[in-house]
Amino acid sequence: MPPMRKPPWVLPAARDPAAGDAVRRLMRELGLATVCESARCPNLGECLGAGTATFLVLGGACTRRCGFCAVAKGPPSPPDPDEPAAVADGVRRLGLDHAVVTSVTRDDLPDGGAAHFAATVRAIREAVPGARVELLVPDFAGAPGALETVLAAGPDVLAHNLATVPRLYPRARPGADYPRSLALLRRARGAAPGVATKSGLMAGLGEGIEEMAAVMRDLAAAGVAALTVGQYLQPGRDNLPVERYLAPAEFDAIAAGARAAGIARVAAGPLVRSSYRARELHAG
Prior knowledge:
Blueprint: H1 21-30, E1 33-34, H2 35-38, H3 44-49, E2 54-57, H4 83-94, E3 98-103, H5 114-127, E4 132-136, H6 146-152, E5 157-159, H7 169-172, H8 178-191, E6 196-203, H9 209-221, E7 226-231, H10 248-261, E8 265-269, H11 278-281
Parallel strand pairs: 2-3, 3-4, 4-5, 5-6, 6-7, 7-8
Antiparallel strand pairs: 1-2
Helix pairs in contact: 1-4, 4-5, 5-6, 9-10
């Protein structure tokens, strides 16, 4: 079956092809990667053109094979001990006052990469003392003490994406576990009440309206403070197909439902992604 035609509201606005070249040059100079490029984000031109990016640490190869993700899979490289300082330098040179750092999933590491995240937070704090630091972390495969290691470094925002509804995990998120992911968010809220917790969901993978509503209730019960919801867009032919394109009004209804469930900060729309305009979501 041929892929569905994309409606106009999921097409990014046309931008100058050179937009973001300064950010790309800096990333190459520092030997860093961005999830914006690795995940083929539709907002790539907008964000890099605005002089911002989401840093991708712990290498370019993920140890899991999520059906929706374009990030490369394969044997990972050892963590680069100089990477935290390089990220901090990137934050400083870009003049960011809200830095977002994520990673590939590293099930090969005993702590899932938690110590590397913590080192990156500390390096940013030293280089740019006033910057807000947001981490989008994996589930660390449930490694004991991993979450506590990250929280001890003092991030301002701790995000972990549930991504989709539990029924679709075997197809969309093999290797992940819905209760484990939800428990990570709940534990983060309990262990560090001053750290805002955040999650992200995709729509259009075949989830039902009530299934989505149930996930949002679970997130609210876990004390999650912020939620992003965006349209799933198939990044490559080997990834899961789009089951449905939601209209903008449907995203407005999802946002209203999330707020009604008790999630204070919500960004929902066709092109919303977990780190898209992260600064604005947590401003104020």
